[in-house]
Amino acid sequence: MSYAKVHLSPEEMRLVTDPGVILTKNSVMAKVIEMFGGLSGEYQKIWKEEGVEPKISRGENYRGLPWVMLDYPRYFGKEEVFAIRTLFWWGHAFSVTLHLKGGYRDRFLPMVQGRWAELAAAGFHMGVSDDEWRHEHVPENYREVSGGVDLVRDDVDFLKLSSAVGLHRWEDAPAELLSMFKTLIGVLF
Question: What pTM was estimated for this model as a whole?
């Protein structure tokens, strides 16, 4: 009967007896989805690609926390990726990430390398992790892009550029995310 020894801390008991915690979380997640729905329309005005629709997904457990993401454009293959992912990660930040892999990396790398200063000025960071699916803005995953410094690695077949907006800037987030998206599209095309 080991289950009988499961105890809650005072903080856990406070939270488990307060339905408002989950109801508030659900309300926040719905507002993020609404925000991303609006952004997807703005993104489509900028990136006018026929046959490619934005996709909004949500989950409860990226590194233990809820998340919402908007992928647009989004081309995901086993060996090829061209995507711009807008992510809300509970307790952390909003971010916009360009993910290029395979032939897309090869095609767009010269454009990216020619625009380091612009990317640095817009607050973008270069992915340096061996794991292309890590999104946390921490030193082992991303390093600041400083004008003229080339952080592109030849030992991986993907390239990631990402910029983040803190959650404390909630009211500014839609405009900031749209600006990041425009910067990435401007660099590539």
Answer: 0.93
